[in-house]
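Appendix B, record 7
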Amino acid sequence: MSQKFNVQDLLSKYHAGTITDDERILLEEWYINWKPERQDLSHREIEQMKSKVWQSLNVDVKPAAPARLWPRIAAAASIIFCISIAGYFVVNPKHPHPQIAAKIHKQDIAPGGNKAILTLNNGLRINLNSQVNGTIAKQGNAKVVKMSNGQLAYAPEAADASSVVYNTLSTPRGGKYDLVLSDGTKVWLNSASSITYPTVFKGKNRTVNITGEVYFEIIHNAKQPFIVNFKGNTVEDIGTQFNINAYDDEPVIKTTVVEGSIKLLKDSKSVTLHPGQQSITSLSGNEIEVRDADINEATAWKNGMFKFKQAKIEEVMRQLSRWYNVDISYPFGIPKTVFSGEMIKDANASQILDMLTYFKVNYEIVQQTNGTGKKIIIKP
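Structure tokens (predicted):
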């Protein structure tokens, strides 16, 4: 094609529902004419890659009417896009000629979605998935409203001298949820995460506590600083958008600034982070490491993507475990493969796991005998 365009931008527009007819045609043509950057693949191997993608989507390999199958084509294109930017998702020089592992998926796992539990001040737990849109509770001086767009929002009412009331919003594995606090601050919760907050902010500070991974878009107020507490760390915003990854099963805590700046405190030490910077801390020490961040990688989850950059398989699997609510097992040892690439999260687990088979990281999805769900077994 003679025209130049950004495939990722067009895919993002498609999934947001804003793609034009002309852009859709460009993306379809790109998919049909796609060639991998790797030069060592034969025509047969290229066609096998495309065929495997189509088969994983339960679509005929050579569809007669691709326009009618466009939603699946877009999903396939987003998978193929990983190939073009990352050597078919997996980067491993030890295996320059990967073989396709034939597999019949007797078990599969659907992607996560909007799921959360709201715990009120009196301990009552509300499953937000079963709630209709509108006011679902009154807490302190605020109405709790489930919006038509799926967000949870707090609408302050007339102030009085009543005590501060706290709520907790928590997502399970396989869940995510968005929240608008009473001051207008927007919050995105990743899977297996939580935030505890006052329904209306009073006093000198606006303080919340989090677990897991949370993205903030703060409404700045110099007279009432916004403070986030998590695992012995404290963040104070200075007019900011930032992401905090503080999962218990991750080896370090990562705080990444997207806009504005923040002050990070750990024990007696503190640093100021600016856009494009990331801090690394741990529970075992009080050191704060500051480094340049890959913003797209740190915030990919918020934008409905998986993105990995030289990630070990354990890191990849921790993310899959949380999003698909599945346990991971390595009975044959942990492969040393390192992965780079990205893919949409709105896909069944097998579609992502199939990417690994090209580089001899195989898997099996099984039902656990104790009835606690499914398990992914990583195999040689």
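Remarks on this record: Helices lie at 7-16, 21-33, 43-56, 70-86, 295-299, 313-324, 349-357. The first helix runs from residue 7 to 16.
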